[in-house]
Structure formats: structure tokens, C-alpha cells
Amino acid sequence: MRYVSTRGGVPPVGFADAMIAGLAPDGGLYVPQELPAIDLAEIRSWSTLCYADLATEVISRFAGDMDRAVVAAACRQAYSAEVFGSTEVVPAVALMDDTWLLRLSNGPTLAFKDMAMQLLGRLFDAELARRGERLLVVGATSGDTGSSAEHAMIGRKNISVVMLSPLGRVSPFQAAQMYSIDEPNIVNLAIDGVFDEAQDLVKAVNADAAFKAAHSIGAVNSINWARVAAQIVYYVWAWLRLAPEPDGEIQMAVPTGNFGNIYAGTVARRLGLPIRFILATNENDVLDEFFRTGVYRVRSKDQVAVTSSPSMDIAKASNFERFVFDLHGGDGAAVSRLWSQLHETGQFDLSSLSAFNSLSDWMVSGSSVHDNRVETIRRIAVGDGVLVDPHTADGIFVGQQLRRPGPLVCLETAQPAKFGATIIEALGQDPPRPDGLVGLESLPQHVTVIDADLAAVRSQVEALAARQGG
Ligand SMILES: *Cc1c(COP(=O)(O)O)cnc(C)c1O
Known about the structure:
Elements: E1 3-5, H1 15-21, E2 30-32, H2 40-44, H3 51-62, H4 68-78, H5 81-84, E3 92-95, E4 99-103, H6 113-131, E5 135-140, H7 144-153, E6 159-166, H8 172-179, E7 186-192, H9 195-207, H10 209-214, E8 217-218, H11 225-242, E9 250-255, H12 260-270, E10 275-281, H13 286-293, E11 295-297, H14 320-327, H15 332-345, E12 347-349, H16 354-357, E13 363-367, H17 370-384, H18 390-402, E14 408-412, H19 420-427, E15 448-451, H20 454-467
Parallel strand pairs: 4-14, 5-6, 5-8, 6-7, 7-15, 9-10, 9-14, 10-13
Antiparallel strand pairs: 1-2, 3-4, 11-12
């Protein structure tokens, strides 16, 4: 299987190259040239597989240029009881009214990002070892992605990580998740500034091609196709377990920020799974607006509301470009024109596109505000005895409003332990913590505080590269 850019400007590459490159050189995102030919009968035949073996079946079809045994080993190690807390890996919990909670956040950092990152760390390591190369990941985080990436890279011989976070602006729990790591290949830098400054510093490091090449600097960010591939698996897993009759439809409610999670679901649908999607945003409703009106209108940084579901506080949705590519039947030139228009005017309008107008058959959207989420957390705690986090509550709230008859599967994207303040507001008590994380904040921390200054970041990168011998 070959991968092309959503902007149509680069020659096709294999899965491993697309994974290591992240972004395509023309500024677009890698997408498969065509989807693997799978039919529902074949998918049905996977219903008895454990999660790791199902992941091998699905992912190896997208990763034809990687050795299947390498993919299988990575899947078995990542999707194990040691990493995800149970042999099921992704348990489904029944709530009232034919509603299910799909628990995606039992990984080491308690957010669904671990589902992809734990596999990516292993696939990257194996592929880099085969090539005899190393990679130095320089990233910026406002919380969830950084800790998920760091935990996925612990002990990896061919990858090191420099992660920038804004000093004092990530939650104490998120800070402790990152800074308690004491590994030679992981460096935490707390920037005396805000998240946007950290991100600008990462962009500046990457803009210097010579520096980037000298230290093999790369990224593992949310637009990496390999992350999408890993996320397709749990849609297949849920459909196999929860579809009402053979080949019946399920509805899935997905709390959405950068459109990465739900995009993987739309790929699963294109493989043949009858799934109806309910997209849920918070007050930052760029995507809800698009699916209701056809107008995609990105916001400026100062228009982004700070909410109680912070991992969905976005001004634009980076993975959305892949979906627009699919709506245009894979026409890269059309996507390229739309993104030029977006840069010039801040918006584009697809309301007259027939592919947009037929979406309402299988994709609807809505949004929640803070009070909706707090009330949902309370209602699910009282009615079902199950505690959910504010992001998951957003999906449940919107999902229950827009559902049709039939099973509704709500995707859990984080554990409540990560968002204690909102849980206290809803229930008057702290959320429980998994055993291994009790006292996390009092562990010794490994973090270097630096000015928001490019020279300071570069010297930290050089020092790590020198220690790693690269
Ligand atoms: C990242 C994240 C989301 C949003 O996922 P996207 O793939 O960006 O749509 C939702 N909830 C939580 C807890 C997250 O960490």
C-alpha cells in the first residue's frame, strides 16, 4: 500500500516512510492511495481474535511494506494486560438505555492517546533499528500528548525525546506524569512562557534544516498516519462486539478536537463497517459548525475558549484535511486550493458539494457547554454508578441527544483522575486513582526550566544528541 499527500504534490511512499516523515513535504497529510480490499465477511471472521491479533490483521493491511512479524510483535507488546490493565485492552461497559462506554483510556497516561502512541513507539523503534537510524523527537505539549509520547518512548534505544511544556501551566498531575520520568532518552524542558511559545520554539527548531538533519530531528504528532491506522482497530473491535445483529449498524459518539480519533472511525466505515457517527465538540465548536453548515471557519488563538475539556480546545482541526480529501474523492489539487483559500480568508464553504450533503445519513454533530458536562458526569455517576471524565461526558451528552434507536457506543477518551477539579465540582469528591499513580505528584521530578529562547532549546537538544552519540 502506497501513501500520497492530501495536497497531491509528492510521489507516493510506503507506510514506514510516511510514519517516519509525519507530515508530507508539500505540507499535506499522508493518506492511503487506495484502501485495502476487505469485506464484512472477512471482518466478521476476526470476531474471535484478541485485541492484539485484531490489531495485527487491521494494521498489517495498511503497512504492507513492514514485515508482518514486526507488526505482530509490536501489537502483542503494546496491546497487553501489562500496558492496558486487562486482557480485553478496550473493555465495553453497559450503561442504561442501550448505551455503552468504550474504555480507551486504560493505558499508562490515562488518555486514549496511549492506544496509538504505545504502538507507535514500538513500530518506530523497530523500523529505525532496521534502518540503522536514530530519531530525536522535539515536541511541545499542553498536557496529554507529551506525557503519552514520553511514556511510549521509555527504554527505546533508537529514539530520544525533548518535550517542551509551559512552566506552571500544565496540571500538577500532568506535570508529574512527565517530570517523574527518569530516563536517559527523555528530557523535559519547562519553558518560562505559554504553550504557544513552546510550540513556536519547536517550529523554529524544525525550520533550521541543517540543524534538523544534523541531529535527526523528527516528530510524532497527531497528524501521523500510523496513529490513524492504530485507532481504526478499536472501531472494528467495538463493532464486532456491539453491533445488534450480523452486519447491523451501531452509533458511536466521539468527543472531538483535532478530528484524529473520529477520522479513524470514518476510515473503518469506508472499509465497510455500518457505523453512524455523532461528533461532539465543546464550546470550541469549529467542527460542529462545519457539519451543521458546510462552512469551515478556523478561529484565531484568542478566540479559543479555555474549557473544562481542555484537550478539545482547538482553533483548527489538523486531521480534518484528510476528511476533506475524502469528500473530494481524493482530489489533491482541490484540497490544495481550499487550504490556500483558508490561509487567505480563514474559511471555506462546502455546502454546495453533494458529498457534503449526503453526510447527514451517517455523520451528525453537536456541542456541549460546561454545565452539560458537569450534569452528565453527575447523572452517569448516580444512574449507572460509573465515573466519566469531562471529555467523555461531552460525547455522552451529545450522543444521547442525537441518537436513533439502537445501541449507542460512547468513546471514553480519558479517565476522570486526570481532571479532578471538574469531578469535585460535579460530585463533591476526588476521583479515585489507579493504584500505581497514588502519590505521583510527590515523586522526584526531572525537569529543566529554561527561558522561552531558541538558543536555550538548541543547546539542550545538542547536549542530549551528544549524550546519545548522534
Ligand atoms: C486528544 C483528546 C481528545 C480529542 O481527540 P482528537 O483526536 O484530537 O479529536 C479528546 N479527549 C481527550 C481526553 C484527549 O486527550
